[in-house]
Every structure is written in C-alpha cells, then in structure tokens.
C-alpha cells in the first residue's frame, strides 16, 4: 500500500476536502424531514456543530447563544476569559494590533496567570444564563480544571492538545492518566486531537465520550508548517471512523468522532460527515459572527506559545449574525452561511435520514470538483471563485 518515495521508502496517498465529492443517492428526502441530531454522553443536540475553544470565537455570551440554538460552544480555560477580569479590553487590543506585532502581543497577554476563581465564574455565568457549559483544557491542567469545572456545573469537559496519545512520556512532569481521569470525572469527557487508526482505538478505550480528529487543518493553525505534522482531513476522518466502527463491533460501545478544523463552508462540513464524522468543530466560520468576541479576528490556541507559536492571527471579517451563519437566511453566495441548511439539503440529496446514514454516502476522488465549469466565478472572484 502506498507509493514509492525513494528506494525502500513508501508513503500513503491521503486526501483533503477539496479532492473529493459526494455522489447523490438513489432516493432523495425532503430536507425538512431529516434528523441532524447527535449525542455525547447522555446529552443530545440537534445541531451537530461545535464552536471551537478559541478566544476570538467563544465567550460567555456566545456560548449561551449557541446553546439556545441547539449546538455547543466550547470556552477555552487556557485563554483570556480566565486570565482577565475584563477580557473584552484585551480582545480589542488583539484585534487592533498590527500583523507585525500580533504574535508578540499575544505572547505577552497570555503570560498573565490563569485565575481559578475566573474558571468557576465563567462556568457559572454560562449556566446562570441557561447555556450548556463546555470547556477545554490542556492535559497538564486537566486534573485541576476538571474538578473545578465539574463542581461549578460544567456539562462537557474537553482535554485538548495539538497531538494527544494515551502513551505520553515525560520525566519533567506528571502525565495525565486518561483512564483514571475519565473514570473520576462524572461528566462526558472529549479527548483530542488525533488522526490515526491505532491512536483512535487506544483513546476510545480510556472511557472518552468522544474524540476530536484533526491535526493542523484549522484556518489559523500553522502546525503543518512549523512542525511538518498533519494528515489531510478526509483520510484522517475515514481512518478514525474505521477505528470507531471496529471498537463498536468489539466492545458494543459507540464513541462519536468529531472532525476538528479545515471546514470553512457548508460543503466541507457535509463532506466531513460523509467521511464518518458524528459532529464537527469549527472556528473561523463562527469567528465571522457579530456575536463572536474577536471582532472579526481569529487565532488558534497555540498561537501565543512563548517558545514556538503554531498559529497566527487571521482576519476573517464580520459577515452576519450567528443565526444567519447557522440557519440563514444566507446573504453570501460562498457557502459560509446557513450551514445547517446546507447540511439538511445535502442529506436530502444523498437520501440520508440521519447523520449515521450520511456516513454511508458514496465518495469519489474529484480533484476538479471546485474548478470544473467555474471559469467565470474564478475570473470574477465570486461564489466558489473567491
């Protein structure tokens, strides 16, 4: 399997969203009659889209708004929301900084220590306003933050790092035992990120409620350039889905996988589900919302790293409300709004009554899918030519 790179060295061909397409089904369904819901732990959500744990995307008010629309927004416990009493002032500084000074400014602002009282406060603020509380922490702080979050009323806890494995080795610090952590925490624990079949299997065995799939595809992420790491999302999702299905057959436990990153349009999201995802996590799509705290700017969680930033601040602009981005009406022609409408319409056209049925859609390799017949869009920079 694979192609020769040189004498004695082969590499597997992998695929991203722009290289595949979905084949219409033999049966079509009214888009208004499909079921888009998914479940993590005992919690069921009608919107299978999670707003990623990035400071330019999610604050308390955004999390509440997203919850009331049927989805989840994850608050970053490593960010400005838990370092500053008034994070809005800090966010304005980041948004207004020049490109040349943005990384240095982020590094300086993120040196402020995290305050445990703010972790508790932010969770309680979301809860008090009627939102579903989902928060994110790196493995090194998961033990402390997991306890605080659970006691404060958190609903879903995410342990997230650039690359996550069960067998992390270190002599400098104590590594997180995912088996013990998932057993001790009484709320659903989502773990990420990974991209390979075997790692997916091992992480599922810890008792995780779901897994995040994706390394380096995010719009603001530079991991693939800085470290050379990453697997294109189509292949990563397909491999993880195969692991999930094998784990279910062997153990009788279904562990959802969540495609994380690389999706900027409704079409990308539909392809992620067809490849095997149970839900998706997106950042830049929601960074464009009027309710997003970044004011049209967006940066990854690793961007402020003191030694080796693996992200950059990008400008995505403010294009509409969260409701328009999720449910429409779409006022743009490029697929970045009415994401749920796109998902439902796609499900109807491939004949999928549910997300699980959408995962069975026929996929084809189609490198010309974005360019075939689109010469006028490309030359005029409209629609798919933007």
Regarding CATH, which class? Alpha Beta
Helix content: 25-40%
Major sheet size, sense and barrel closure: 8 strands, parallel, barrel
Number of domains: 1
Indicate the structural class. alpha/beta
Portion of residues in beta strands equals 15-25%
The outline comes out as: globular
**Unreliable sequence segments:** none
Q: Might you state the CATH topology name?
A: TIM Barrel
Question: N-to-C terminal Cα separation, in Å?
Answer: 37 Å
Cα radius of gyration in angstroms: 20 Å
How many helices? The count is 15
Task: Count all strands and give the number.
Answer: 16
| Mean pLDDT metric | 93
Assign the CATH superfamily.
Answer: Aldolase class I
Strands ordered across the widest β-sheet: 6-7-8-9-10-11-12-13
Based on the structure given, which CATH architecture is correct? Alpha-Beta Barrel
Folded structure, characterized:
- It is a single chain.
- The chain is an alpha/beta fold and 386 residues long.
- The chain has 15 helices and 16 strands.
- 35% of the residues lie in helices and 15% in strands.
- The strands form 5 sheets. It has an 8-stranded parallel β-barrel, surrounded by 5 helices. A two-stranded antiparallel sheet has the order 1-2. Strands 3-16 form a two-stranded antiparallel sheet.
- α7 links the parallel β10 and β11.
- The mean pLDDT is 93.
């Amino acid at each position: 399997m694979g192609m020769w790179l040189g004498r004695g060295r082969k590499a597997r061909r992998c695929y991203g969203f722009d290289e595949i397409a979905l084949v219409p089904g033999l049966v079509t369904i009214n888009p208004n009659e499909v079921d888009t819901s998914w479940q993590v732990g005992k919690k069921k959500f009608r919107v299978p889209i999670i707003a990623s744990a990035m400071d330019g995307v999610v604050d308390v008010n955004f999390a509440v708004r997203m919850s009331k629309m049927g989805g989840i927004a994850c608050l970053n416990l490593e960010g400005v929301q838990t370092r500053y009493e008034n994070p809005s002032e800090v966010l304005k500084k980041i948004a207004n900084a020049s490109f040349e000074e943005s990384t240095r400014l982020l590094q300086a602002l993120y040196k402020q220590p995290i305050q445990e009282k703010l972790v508790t406060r932010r969770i309680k603020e979301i809860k008090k306003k009627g939102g579903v509380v989902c928060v994110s922490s790196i493995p090194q702080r998961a033990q402390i933050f997991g306890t605080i979050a659970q006691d404060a009323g958190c609903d879903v806890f995410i342990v997230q790092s650039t690359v996550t494995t069960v067998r992390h080795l270190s002599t400098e610090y104590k590594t997180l035992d995912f088996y013990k952590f998932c057993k001790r925490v009484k709320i659903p624990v989502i773990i990420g990120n990974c991209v390979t079949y075997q790692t997916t299997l091992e992480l599922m065995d810890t008792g995780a409620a779901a897994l995040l799939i994706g390394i380096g595809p995010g719009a603001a992420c530079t991991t693939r350039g800085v470290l050379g790491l990453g697997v294109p999302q189509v292949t990563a999702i397909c491999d993880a889905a195969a692991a999930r299905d094998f784990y279910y057959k062997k153990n009788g436990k279904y562990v959802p996988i969540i495609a994380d990153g690389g999706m900027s349009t409704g079409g990308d999201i539909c392809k992620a589900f067809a490849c095997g995802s149970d839900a998706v996590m997106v950042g830049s799509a929601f960074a464009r919302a009027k309710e997003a705290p970044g004011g049209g700017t967006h940066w990854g969680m690793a961007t402020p790293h003191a030694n080796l930033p693996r992200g950059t601040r990008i400008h995505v602009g403010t294009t509409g409300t969260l409701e328009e981005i999720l449910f429409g009406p779409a006022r743009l022609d490029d697929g970045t709004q009415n994401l749920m409408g796109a998902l439902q319409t796609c499900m109807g056209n491939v004949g999928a009554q549910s997300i699980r049925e959408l995962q069975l859609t026929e996929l084809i390799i189609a490198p010309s899918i974005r360019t075939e017949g689109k010469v006028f869009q490309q030359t005029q920079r409209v629609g798919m030519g933007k």
